[in-house]
Design a protein that fits this description.
0% strand; mainly alpha; 16 helices; 399 residues; single chain; globular
Length: 399
């Protein structure tokens, strides 16, 4: 996504010139691409890793489950602990640890070292996702910060479209270690650019470190809505393959193409949300949650029809990606206290939603079949939407 700005805007944003700021955001986007790819690569390479290390499939699955739990548990305390560290220094350390741990995971001969490397990466992920948005947005004036966030998170969106599928293919054609080594190189490149171009000012001097409209009640509602809606999304989406094959009657070979369409829709959702959120973060968040709810409702009503199912999956990917951009932009605007710590709370809520939704969906699938996952997901998303719509009256009552 293009975040090129006129020279007058570059002067408003401080010591960083337009060109340096844009390249720095691009480097951070590449870093998020590498993080997001490494996070979920074990899913695509499950059999290869299990065979290569002589462990069970469930042990390899723990590399993903444990990763999410570590991020959820450590995002807030680690971000609070590092809130005074200059952003350039902090991001350089995070990317250095990511690069080294990913490289270690790619060359290790044993499962224990790989698990330890994954924990290290998860710890860096917990802080990275909390501080990267404000670090990038602080180099630009307030009126375009949502577009900057969208450009930043285009890296993680592209990871789902290109990074994980390409990494999976590469690991299957060569060795499961190769894509991890490639991601460590990307981390090194991104880290080098960040050290070179990011401003060296203290964390307190970042213009995006404090929100222009801080509100404790609005933020608390935002975090709650995020956890509930994401739980609803992943109650269904974790088992989307089962739904598409059993309920929609699609072949297992076509599922990959459906998910690829969803990935492209996700990239579009990220870009579009950035444009809209610069006008109104609240309206964009509300629109994204409404679309998640509508897409799940479409699956409840017509999920047995392949065209409707594919349309709904694409809408889900588009709306969740848009919601991530809107959520981050909303936090930059209303966070009470330190924006990075608030972002960490938002990240923890997102991870909690993923864990809760995946767990709930699994229990429902075993007990009541795949259709129950989408019904429950739609109910949870609708509950999140009701909470979000109640934000204004609740805020007025609090005042």
């Amino acid at each position: 996504m293009d975040v090129t700005l006129p020279e007058s805007v570059a002067k408003e944003s401080g010591e960083v010139t337009r060109g340096r700021a844009v390249v720095a955001v691009a480097a951070l986007s590449v870093a998020l691409f590498a993080f997001a790819t490494v996070e979920t690569l074990p899913v695509g390479l499950l059999p290869q890793i299990a065979h290569g290390l002589g462990v069970s499939l469930s042990s390899v699955g723990l590399l993903v489950t444990g990763y999410g739990l570590v991020v959820m548990a450590t995002a807030v305390p680690l971000t609070a602990l590092t809130r005074r560290v200059p952003r350039r220094r902090l991001l350089a350390v995070l990317l250095s640890v990511f690069t080294a741990a990913t490289l270690l995971g790619g060359v290790t001969p044993g499962y224990g070292i790989l698990l330890g490397a994954r924990i290290l990466i998860a710890l860096t992920h917990a802080v990275m996702w909390s501080v990267v948005a404000s670090a990038a947005a602080g180099m630009f004036p307030e009126r375009v910060r949502a577009k900057v966030v969208a450009a930043l998170f285009s890296g993680s969106s592209l990871a789902q479209v290109a990074g994980v599928p390409t990494g999976t293919w590469l690991g299957q054609q060569t060795d499961w270690r190769v894509p991890f080594l490639v991601m460590s190189v990307l981390g090194l490149i991104a880290g080098t650019v960040v050290v070179t171009l990011l401003p060296s000012a203290s964390a307190e001097d970042n213009p995006a470190a404090t929100a222009p409209e801080p509100s404790g009640i609005r933020f608390a509602l935002l975090v709650t809505v995020t956890a509930v809606v994401v739980a609803g999304f992943f109650t269904f989406y974790t088992y989307v393959t089962v739904f598409l094959t059993r309920v929609a009657g699609m072949s297992s070979h076509s599922v990959g193409a459906v998910l690829a369409v969803g990935g492209v829709a996700g990239v579009i959702g990220t870009s579009g949300s950035g444009v809209l959120a610069d006008r109104s973060t609240r309206a964009t968040m509300t629109g994204s949650v409404t679309l998640v709810t509508a897409a799940l409702a479409l699956l409840v009503a017509a999920g047995s029809h392949p065209v409707a199912a594919v349309t709904a999956v694409a809408l889900l990917s588009l709306s969740l990606s848009g919601m991530i951009t809107a959520l981050t932009s909303r936090i930059l605007r209303i966070a009470p206290g330190n924006v990075d710590v608030a972002s960490a709370a938002g990240s923890a809520a997102f991870q909690a939603g993923i864990a809760a939704g995946s767990f709930l969906g699994g229990r429902l699938l075993d007990a009541h079949g795949p259709h129950s996952t989408v019904v429950t997901g739609a109910v949870l998303a609708a509950a999140g939407l009701v909470l979000l719509l109640a934000e204004e009256p609740l805020s007025r009552r609090r005042r």
